[in-house]
Recover the amino acids of this structure.
């Protein structure tokens, strides 16, 4: 294991956590706090002990010489040494280690042994890592797509940082396809590779893997816009075909029109708040998907699948495919409204589109298309859409 801290950033062959400094982790000076560094260190321990149950017995954090990362910066938590039930970790960003953290723990139950983060030559390097918590999961206990896209934001920032492009790339399109379930406590790694670079954008594909087993959980394809073509030169050096992950299948027809049609259902009204935005005050991808999750539940209620029915019949609708097109992001303080249009359905699945609109002007920010599968929570198997719901969808799609 090698670790270096000479001003060029933390260079290590054992990054446990790579993420972006978010508002909640920063103080009044917009810089990473010691409390946030301690929390990252505990998250890093959870990754290190993936599959094991543990209780933290002590955490201490000491300030180091490097400048503190600020909101929007990539921050890494890297293993410097391990001795028994104690880890020493370095937490910092481009400038090097800003904090050193010592974490000790005791094992509280049976579990898998800590995996080795071996390098697979067929895969790109790990760009982000995280252990899933209860607040990452939906009501059915599955890790929510919001968290996947937040991990992808982390991975893109880490990838750009490694190529000297520290300014954040903005996701303008995303396709998320789920492959297997993730639950609370699972440690997840993201491996990201550049597929294509043009004068205006970079296409980056991400594989989200269950750390302990290596199982593929999701594939996320992103198109990122940049400020100038010169910014992409550094990423171009990383451009390579990544055949391990197949390209997503083409989106289904019919395609949604440019504006919501007359059969659209208003499913959400909200104001973009401080906790919904990135460091540039644009709505974060996680904030957008949170709006869409609310909109989806309201839309499902309007077609006959409200919360009471879900609970009574022990069913739900599980989203398995997302297609996000967001050329313009709402900004802090803007009022937004979601109008949702059903696009089609089959015996066990439905497809609908959220239009994200400026509530004051009616301008369209973008769209989020979702494919949802009817799920029996008792068996975790797909099941048939209830007849009355299918009748409603048939009427709406014919309108």
């Amino acid at each position: 294991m090698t670790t270096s801290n000479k001003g060029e950033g933390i260079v290590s062959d054992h990054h446990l956590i790579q993420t972006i400094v978010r508002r909640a982790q920063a103080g009044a000076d917009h810089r990473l706090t010691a409390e946030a560094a301690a929390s990252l260190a505990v998250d890093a321990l959870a990754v290190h002990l993936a599959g094991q149950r543990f209780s933290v017995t002590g955490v201490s954090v000491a300030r180091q010489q490097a400048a503190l990362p600020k909101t929007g910066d990539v921050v890494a938590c890297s293993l410097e040494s391990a001795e028994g039930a104690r880890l020493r970790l370095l937490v910092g960003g481009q400038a090097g280690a800003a904090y050193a953290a010592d974490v000790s723990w005791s094992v509280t139950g049976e579990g898998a042994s800590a995996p080795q983060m071996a390098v697979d030559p067929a895969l790109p390097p790990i760009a982000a890592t995280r252990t899933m918590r209860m607040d990452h999961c939906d009501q059915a206990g599955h890790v929510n797509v919001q968290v996947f896209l937040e991990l992808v934001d982390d991975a893109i920032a880490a990838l750009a940082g490694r190529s000297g492009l520290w300014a954040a790339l903005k996701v303008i399109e995303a396709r998320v396809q789920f492959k297997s379930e993730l639950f609370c406590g699972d440690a997840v790694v993201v491996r990201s590779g550049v597929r294509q670079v043009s004068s205006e954008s970079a296409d980056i594909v991400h594989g989200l893997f269950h750390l302990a087993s290596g199982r593929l959980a999701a594939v996320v394809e992103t198109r990122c816009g940049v400020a100038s073509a010169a910014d992409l030169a550094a990423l171009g050096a990383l451009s390579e075909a990544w055949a391990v992950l197949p390209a997503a299948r083409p989106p289904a027809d019919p395609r949604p029109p440019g504006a919501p049609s007359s059969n659209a259902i208003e499913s959400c009204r909200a104001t973009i708040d401080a906790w919904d935005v990135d460091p540039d005050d644009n709505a974060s991808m996680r904030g957008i998907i949170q709006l869409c999750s609310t909109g989806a539940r309201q839309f499902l209620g309007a077609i006959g699948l409200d919360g009471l029915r879900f609970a009574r019949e022990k069913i739900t609708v599980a989203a398995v495919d997302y297609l996000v097109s967001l050329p313009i992001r709402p900004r802090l303080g803007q009022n937004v409204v979601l109008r949702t249009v059903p696009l089609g359905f089959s015996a066990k699945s439905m497809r609908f589109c959220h239009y994200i609109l400026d509530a004051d002007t009616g301008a369209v920010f973008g769209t989020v298309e979702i494919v949802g599968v009817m799920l029996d929570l008792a068996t975790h198997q797909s099941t048939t859409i209830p007849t009355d719901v299918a009748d409603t969808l048939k009427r709406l799609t014919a309108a």
User: Anything to note?
Assistant: The longest strand covers residues 364-376. Confidence is low (pLDDT under 50) at residues 1-13, 112-119.
